[in-house]
């Protein structure tokens, strides 16, 4: 029998998942997740992890709660670690308590990893603090999702409270909430804010008063999922609204994946308030190398194309029982910043560092490669082949791929919803086009397409994509500048 972890995913932004929650996700054999869980979190799972969607929508619960609980029991019987991933916090109107009770009765060990509740974190992203010395010394979190025919809330008591009122899952009951608070003594001019998709790049906030908010909501088209906050703290939003003032806020970017793992470019876009999706997912398949201990020791130079290559190479050294110090006469070259950092984590400074896997930068070292008795390129199947092609005139060169990366289609995928498609390498072009349908390729041609540099641009042209903009310099920073420039050009004056 395995263990179940009830994990709070936070208010929305994938980076707000706790460190402990992320560690559990990466080890999970099964993830049972809700509708409001940010898809980027699921990409942190291991390749063999099973996903089970149990999402609920307003007034539509295709999988009843008792069935969800039985899924957890069933999966824990045959898997070592089952994760129940829930938006916000499991114990703040997340029915985590009910799930914990069921697991307890079934004799299944479980653990709760709290999450940042949207009642606090979500409002912070809208520039609204739940407490403030000048406005509110308390806050009250209330479910706005009431059972049919039942209203157990003491509206008279709620209306008397001088603190902040936060209603979760209450959009369908907004008219009742406003009417009941007004009928029981709340002032009509009391501030109200509605925050949809809190903490995500598509966040939308509408403010008003108990008297005006319904009309403003109707005019804005805002709907679930959204928070309702009532209180004087709403007046602080103009001063504290940091998130919606970010340069890439409300910019939805598709960043086609070139490889597995995290992307520094994606993190930079998110840090500027953009909503970025990396697609497709990349499946990593390990390859067992064939080089012997003696052959490695006789190699003149080892070229590493990625941090994954460094990590897998050291694992291979361990299987051979070969100490890295045995390669003291071998020249070690790192291609790429992350590759160099992977060496640093091992306490090693590579002999050479090539910033990018570009033709010009690699050919700068060609004189040394030609003098070597043997050069060995280590990386993925694609990376080693690319570097080998650049060094085609070097005779004493071999490839030792340690892994392969294959794009994996994940559906549903809505290409239509993205404003910009940013290609950061030639491989990212190939990976995306490998998984798009004929209809999606036609949609792609209608999007704002950005290229990081001339090699990526050449690949786009080779696939018949002629309309795109190219970054001034082939760097992530230059591509970010192009994303911002393109956004500003698309904003109506």
Please report which band the strand proportion falls in: under 5%, 5-15%, 15-25%, 25-35%, 35-45% or over 45%: 15-25%
Estimated radius of gyration: 27 Å
Strand order of the largest sheet: 13-18-17-14-15-16
Per DSSP, the total helix count is 20
Amount of helix: 25-40%
Average pLDDT across residues? Answer: 92
What is the oligomeric state here? single chain
Walk me through this protein's architecture.
By secondary structure, this protein is of the alpha/beta class. The termini are far apart.
SSE map:
Blueprint: E1 3-8, H1 19-27, E2 30-33, H2 39-42, E3 50-53, H3 65-78, E4 81-86, H4 96-105, E5 110-113, H5 121-124, E6 139-143, H6 155-160, E7 164-168, H7 174-183, E8 191-196, E9 204-209, H8 213-220, E10 226-230, H9 237-240, E11 252-256, H10 264-271, E12 275-279, E13 281-286, H11 293-297, E14 301-304, H12 307-320, E15 331-335, H13 337-345, E16 352-354, H14 359-363, H15 366-371, E17 375-380, H16 381-390, E18 397-408, E19 420-423, H17 426-435, H18 438-444, E20 448-451, H19 454-462, E21 469-470, H20 476-490
Parallel strand pairs: 1-4, 1-5, 2-3, 2-4, 6-7, 11-12, 11-19, 14-15, 14-17, 15-16, 17-18, 19-20, 20-21
Antiparallel strand pairs: 7-10, 8-9, 8-10, 13-18
Helix pairs in contact: 3-4, 12-13, 17-19
